[in-house]
């Protein structure tokens, strides 16, 4: 802190240049001084670099020379580039402390390591495939009791809560069914059932630009930084945010012990990506809304929390600033969905989402393939469901691409210069209309 003599004593409490921020592994403290709007905070970060570098340097070093007790000694325990992104993330997540690890699943692993044999976990029935697999592992290897319930029903959650519920693990909106979970309602019910219960929210689908689970009463917010935070599909990362510093210390200890902290180069890339989060999300969400309306108007069953037809439209919009950029829709036929997915030109076939370019996938064949077909059926996951992850491209190009794919796949009936979805009965099994090819736009 370097306030010149005599410049207002009232400024003495403010860390004007950010140098007083403690380094990781000690807790980050981003909320000194005035807060700006999200769009401003996400762009600006202070790095305290000795040469005033505009971009935080990459400390590509495993070790730091010197005596024990200095800020950094070994990059598994702490690295200045990682500390930088962690502080920045804490600010935009409204967290007292943020931790950056090597993937979203790495974050989920760190969080669930606080569980002990006999502990109960209450979680959803439409979870990300990897989360499902990790919970299965904890069940078979760790003696943890996992209860999958329909988390859209607060009563179903309450019925599953006991004083042994050590963790409630939520995802909202779920993916690909876009089910909405009441974060505040479930958080208070869980804390009522067991005051030590840790409520964890996977915020990957929303990012801190749209939803801040800690503000809604959750104890932990984590997400895959591979998705919207990075925005370019060129790194893998996971981030964890907490307000309770003791809990943060437990997570830090796991990271330091297991060595999953985010590497310096990836920390730098994540910092670079996250600065455009707000503007990317704004554009992606706007495009997604238009595509959702386009599909719905033509008779497809569309799941997107931005549509008034979504059964939990009000709940979602009470806890999030927007509906995000992932939607799913059904065609009535697996074969038809496969042909649509194969017919798009701009929408690339890929798992994952959150990138600047648009993607299309069939979750049952790709991201959710690790959930066995029987379980998928139990959880009412339609095998024909198509997921669109909308990017920042020109909206007219995106809609034209979908139009030609729907027509080429035989998913629609042409009516004048527009078209409508075929009724579901008409498309059960093979439609035999693949020969109907139109010129590309
Ligand atoms: C991708 C994803 C994860 C896992 O993140 P990785 O970075 O791929 O390990 C967890 N939850 C959700 C909702 C995801 O989409």
- Percent range for β-strand residues: 5-15%
What is the average of the pLDDT values? 88
Broad CATH class of the largest domain: Alpha Beta
Q: Which structural class is indicated by helix and strand composition?
A: alpha/beta
Number of domains: 2
N/C terminus separation:
60 Å
Description of the molecule:
The chain is α/β, with parallel strands linked by helices and 441 residues long. The protein folds into 2 domains: 197 residues, Aspartate Aminotransferase, domain 2 (3-Layer(aba) Sandwich); 150 residues, Aspartate Aminotransferase, domain 1 (Alpha-Beta Complex). Helix content is 32%, strand content 14%. The chain has 13 helices and 14 strands. It has a 7-stranded mixed beta sheet. Strand 2, helix 4 and strand 3 form a beta-alpha-beta unit. Helix 2 runs parallel beside helix 8 and helix 11 crosses helix 13. The longest helix has 21 residues. The protein starts with 37 loop residues before the first helix and ends in a 20-residue tail after the last strand. The relative contact order is 0.11. The N terminus and C terminus are likely disordered. Bound molecules: pyridoxal-5'-phosphate (PLP).
């Amino acid at each position: 802190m370097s306030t010149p003599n005599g410049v207002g004593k009232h400024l003495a409490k403010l860390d004007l240049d950010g140098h007083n921020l403690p380094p990781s592994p000690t807790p980050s403290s981003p909320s000194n001084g005035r807060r700006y709007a999200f769009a401003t905070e996400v762009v600006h970060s202070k790095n305290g670099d000795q040469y005033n570098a505009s971009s935080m340097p990459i400390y590509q070093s495993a070790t730091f020379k010197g005596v024990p007790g200095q800020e950094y000694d070994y990059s598994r325990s702490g690295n200045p580039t990682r500390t930088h992104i962690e502080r920045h993330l804490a600010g935009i997540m409204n967290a007292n402390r943020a931790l950056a690890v090597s993937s979203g699943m790495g974050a989920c692993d760190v969080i669930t390591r606080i569980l002990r044999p006999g502990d109960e976990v209450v979680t959803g029935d439409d979870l990300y495939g990897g989360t499902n697999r990790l919970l299965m592992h904890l069940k078979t290897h760790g003696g943890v009791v996992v209860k999958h319930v329909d988390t859209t029903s607060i009563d179903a959650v309450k019925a599953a809560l006991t004083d042994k519920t050590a963790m409630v693990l939520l995802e909202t909106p779920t993916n690909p069914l876009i089910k909405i979970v009441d974060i505040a309602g479930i958080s208070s019910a869980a804390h009522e059932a067991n005051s030590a219960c840790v409520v964890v929210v996977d915020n990957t689908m929303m990012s801190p630009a749209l939803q801040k689970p800690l503000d809604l009463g959750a104890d932990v917010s984590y997400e895959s930084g591979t998705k919207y935070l990075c925005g370019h599909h060129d790194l893998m990362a996971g981030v964890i945010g907490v307000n309770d510093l003791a809990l943060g210390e437990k997570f830090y200890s796991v990271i330091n012990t297991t060595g999953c902290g985010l590497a310096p180069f990836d920390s730098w890339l994540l910092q670079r990506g996250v600065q455009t989060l707000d503007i990317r999300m704004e554009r992606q969400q706007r495009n997604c809304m238009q595509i959702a309306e386009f599909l719905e108007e033509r008779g497809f069953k569309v799941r997107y929390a931005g549509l008034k037809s979504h059964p939990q439209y009000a709940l979602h919009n009470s806890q999030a600033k927007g509906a995000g950029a992932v939607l799913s829709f059904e065609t009535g036929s697996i074969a038809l969905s496969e042909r649509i997915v194969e017919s798009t030109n701009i929408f690339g076939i890929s798992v994952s989402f959150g990138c600047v370019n648009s993607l299309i996938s069939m979750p049952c064949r790709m991201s959710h393939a690790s959930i066995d077909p029987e379980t998928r059926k139990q959880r009412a996951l339609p095998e024909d469901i198509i997921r669109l992850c909308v990017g920042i491209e020109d909206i007219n190009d995106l809609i034209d691409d979908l139009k030609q794919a729907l027509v080429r796949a035989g998913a629609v009936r042409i009516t004048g210069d527009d078209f409508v979805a075929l009724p579901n009965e008409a498309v059960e099994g093979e439609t035999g209309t693949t020969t109907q090819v139109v010129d590309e736009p």
